[in-house]
Design a protein that fits this description.
57% helix, Citrate Synthase, domain 1, binds acetyl coenzyme *A, 3 strands, three-stranded antiparallel β-sheet, binds oxaloacetate ion, Cytochrome p450-Terp, domain 2
């Protein structure tokens, strides 16, 4: 028996609910566009670096040449992690997911940070995380292959240094650029689940590291960031383009969600997909991966025919990261390396005009009853 007299208006999953205002990014499903602080994300991908975009998201403007240089120098200086964190990383079970490693590493970095929780300290914590997370991810990828860490190289820029720390070499400029483009596209997407999670934690006046740890937890799930890994697992199961249709029919008949398709906000296609798809095609051509690309295209065509659903950003990201040489479980940590910018920009915005986030729930349980001894 329920205690509800009339059906309340419940917005399941907060779908369609405006929870606050933001000036960080605009996701416009109608025009299929995404603006970071007013700039179309495609133009940022064509002309700017990931560090420029981090500056833009944090400060509201693209950096001047001197700001660019100062940011790059600080990022390079903050890459090394201390021995105690390295020891902790090496002791984490290799059976745990790399998102668990990353979540633990951020928690550890928070426990040693003695700075206050004011806006200036939060800006320095944000940059510290942006700079140190690639070092953590690279160490984790290497230890899972039985390899020793490689120290950051301050002569290399952000993405090239990350390849160097992970694989011991820097690939072709086109591959480095494709990685940079993926970092820019993954950086920010308004009130998505992980950003909203970070804002909820921040709204209690908790600290930045706690909010980021919670954001990592939310991103890990396959309905959000974890989908980039699920996409590659799925593509690995399909034995060539001619098998895509049959594989999909079977999966849909079994009522499975097809990872990398659909979106809560975009219903006519994800504005970021064409840009990352172009990067995927460029890297696939370099790696001679025609078959993978054909399977990827065949599945997308079949999915549109069957369900009318478009791919989201995780759909090109999965195979792109695979072709770059990363193991599948490392894909969502790569998303974190980028989204750290969006999360921390939102943490600052939340703090600047805070209100505790605490919605209501319509109670549907058992009505009043007497406790008996
Ligand atoms: C970077 C990112 O985080 S992008 C999102 C990454 N996540 C994924 O790719 C996971 C797969 N996709 C999904 O699960 C969903 O599309 C979500 C969670 C992203 C969006 O979900 P919602 O906006 O809540 O859409 P919802 O789940 O209501 O779907 C509407 C209908 O489309 C179906 N549908 C949506 N996405 C999919 C999918 N990927 N595969 C199969 N069916 C789907 C639903 O089953 C539902 O059908 P029904 O009306 O017959 O029940
Ligand atoms: O906006 C969303 O719901 C998910 C998404 O695409 C993102 O976080 O990049």
């Amino acid at each position: 028996m329920t205690v509800l007299d009339e059906e309340p208006e419940v917005h399941k999953g907060l779908a369609g609910v405006l929870a606050d205002t933001t000036s960080i990014s605009k996701v416009d499903a109608e025009t299929n566009s995404l603006l970071y602080r007013g700039y179309p994300v495609q133009d940022l991908c064509a002309h700017r670096t990931f560090l420029d975009v981090a500056h833009l998201l944090w400060s509201g403007d693209l950096p001047t040449p001197s700001e660019q240089q100062a940011l790059s120098e600080r990022e390079k200086a903050l890459r090394p992690i201390d021995r105690s964190l390295q020891t902790l990383l090496m002791q984490m079970p290799t059976t745990c997911h790399p998102m668990d490693t990353l979540r633990t590493a951020v928690s550890w970095l928070g426990s040693e940070d003695v700075q206050e929780d004011d806006p200036q300290a939060n800006a320095s914590k944000s940059l510290r995380l942006l700079a140190a997370l690639p070092t953590v991810v690279a160490i984790d990828q290497r230890r899972r292959r039985g390899l020793d860490p490689i120290a950051p190289d301050p002569s290399l820029d952000y993405s090239a240094n990350f390849f160097h720390m992970t694989f011991g070499s820097v690939p072709e400029p086109e591959v480095v650029r494709a990685f940079e483009v993926s970092m820019i596209l993954y950086a920010e997407h308004s009130f998505n689940a992980s950003t909203f999670t970070a804002r909820v934690v921040t709204s209690t006046l908790s600290d930045l590291y706690s909010a980021v740890v919670a954001g990592i937890g939310a991103l890990k799930g396959p309905l959000h960031g974890g989908a980039n890994e699920a996409v590659m697992h799925m593509l690995s199961e399909i034995d060539g383009p001619e098998e895509a249709e049959a594989w999909l029919s079977e999966a849909l008949a079994a009522k499975k969600k097809i990872m990398g398709f659909g979106h809560r906000v975009y219903k006519r296609g994800d504005s970021r997909v064409p840009t990352l798809q172009a990067s995927l095609e460029e890297v696939a051509a370099l790696r001679g991966a025609d078959d993978l690309l054909a399977t990827h295209a065949a599945l997308a065509a079949a999915m549109f025919r069957e369900k009318g659903l478009h791919p989201n950003l995780d759909y090109p990201a999965g195979p792109l990261y695979h072709l770059m040489g990363f193991d599948i479980p490392m894909f969502t940590p790569l998303f974190v390396m980028s989204r750290i910018t969006g999360w921390t920009a939102h943490i600052s915005e939340q703090l600047a005009a805070n209100s505790l986030i605490r919605p209501l729930a319509a109670y549907q349980g058992t009505g009043w009853r007497q406790v008996t001894a």
